[in-house]
Amino acid sequence: MLGYVSIGVFIDGGYYAKVNRALKAMESSIIRVRSLFDFITGRLAYEEGINPSDCQITEAHYFRGRYRVKEAYDKHLLYNERKFEDTLIENDVVFHYKHLREVEKDGVVQVIEKGVDVWFALEAYELATFRHFDYVVLITGDADHEMLVRKLKALKIKTVLLTWNLTDVDATSPLLKEEAGHHWELSQLVNQDPALRTHLLYRLREPAISPLGDDF
Predict the structure, then answer these.
(1) pLDDT of 214 strictly over 90
(2) Looking at beta carbons, which pairs linking 97-106 to residues 24 or more positions away fall under 8 Å?
(3) CA diameter of the chain
(4) Do 37 and 11 meet the contact criterion of CB atoms below 8 Å apart?
(5) What local confidence, expressed as pLDDT, does residue 210 receive?
(6) What is the pLDDT of residue 107?
(7) CATH topology for the 10-168+176-203 domain
(8) Euclidean distance between CA atoms 38 and 199, whole angstroms
(9) How much is the pTM?
């Protein structure tokens, strides 16, 4: 049992956005960031057998590619991007962005998000080394982060993989689940505990498909 638990949270923004889009489509809801953080600290406090006040998220970081301002404006994304950034700021989350690129190939436009996963892994590892977190919580399902988990474990830092799988397409990488010391699958947890679903989700007033574009 630890006397005080320091937690670093690292959010894969692309993965987080997919979860929110699926939740909007299925039940017109999105994740409430503050409630998600409360869940993380409360569960780890319970597992460590300490008072919740002694279990704190000392740093939280969010990584994602995003469009340049004119492209975001043309795509009607600016309002929702700014609205979500307000939520991150209110919860002391540090956001890290790289610009997206669009490439047309054979008449199909592809969105290129280059370097964000590498940045995510390097920043998580570096901060874990210097901040000496007791736990690192990774909100992602990407197999590319398997080696990050392995490196964190080599530092003797307990690692939690937090996922919310709502479609088969976005299923968590089996290799990532095997590597992580702890795996919390929220789709299972909220099905077992409807009160947790109510706590974690914010019910949207507008329709699931908004004319302002996708929420982050």
Answers:
(1) no
(2) 97/63, 97/64, 97/65, 97/66, 98/65, 98/66, 99/65, 99/66, 99/67, 99/68, 100/65, 100/66, 100/67, 100/71, 102/71
(3) 59
(4) no
(5) 42
(6) 66
(7) Rossmann fold (3.40.50)
(8) 10
(9) 0.88
